[in-house]
User: What shape does this take?
Amino acid sequence: MSSFWQRILGRSSTPAAAAASSSGLGHKRTDKSSPGLQAYELKQLLGRGAMAVVHLATEKASGRQVAIKRLALQREFAAEDLADVRQRFMREARAAGHLQHADILQVLDAGVDGEDNWIAMEYVQGQDLSHFIRAGQLLPVDEVLALGQRLALALDYAHAQGVIHRDIKPANVMLERRSGVLKIMDFGIARIADGSRTRTGLVLGTPSFMSPEQLAGLKVDGRSDLYSLGVMLYQLLTGRLPHQADSMAQLMYQIANQAPPDVRHYRPELPESLALVLALALEKRPELRYASGQQMAQDLAAVLQELPKPKAELQSAEIKSQEDPDLSDNLTDPFARTLRLELGEAGQNPPASHHSEKP
Assistant: This one.
């Protein structure tokens, strides 16, 4: 895997490109110019979002397949904030590019092309974990716990580098079950809106998976990611979100104030130790949660060891939620998708911990 800034990103009149070149990015490259996005041959479309499209591409020099994400930031952010947003994008891309972990999708390059920012990432095949959150399609319990352990360790590594994800959810984790490849995607993307106004509000992330402090617009650290991981594991085990509501105000109140149902309400056969792990991950106050991904991974490994083998190997179990006629509503829960909110909508939240993320 090539180093993140092997190429000089090139000069441009845009503030983002100026910031990139002035910071010495790409100093390992000996030539004075860089082809930028021209170094890649774009192929078929892989996905499309509100302000981004992802293409399969080939790196011309090596023939390697990569994924190129183009972000049209100008569509979402106020003109007066756009320069700052572009610079923040480059900083976040650089921070993500320094992450070298088997379970984190590698960022290879980034830059500016016209009005768009772009980022090149390693290309992996598989399905994101949102394919495994429906009753009847849930993964075996032991597989969920093993994945959770790996994800917690990957987050622990990123947090030690000062990088917070901010949008951990099933759609941002890729899994190829046959080979066992697991990748956390989109590190730092949610942060590009910090302190900037969008045309429709503040991009905060995915409400159902956000910690109380993140929903309240407070400073977050790695423990916020661990809360989101707890929400994701809960959904992977039950096909349910810990908190569901008919309005954003109700959802935010629940996340800030109400304990979620014990996971055994939907899966009575799950061990108490697993319920305790999830309850600790989903604590409202950051200081009461796991202090690190390493600690959470250790507890998940312990639960996995005590899991009865026959139950662990069951592909499906009798799940209460399978008989619930309202279960289909969970699959289209609007708060389980990325939304844009005005900062003034943030609900009450316990005081922020003195632990803040690294700059």
The longest strand covers residues 40-48. The chain is about 30% helix and 15% strand. The CA atoms of residues 58 and 129 lie 26 Å apart. Residues 35-122 form a domain with the Phosphorylase Kinase; domain 1 fold (CATH 3.30.200.20).
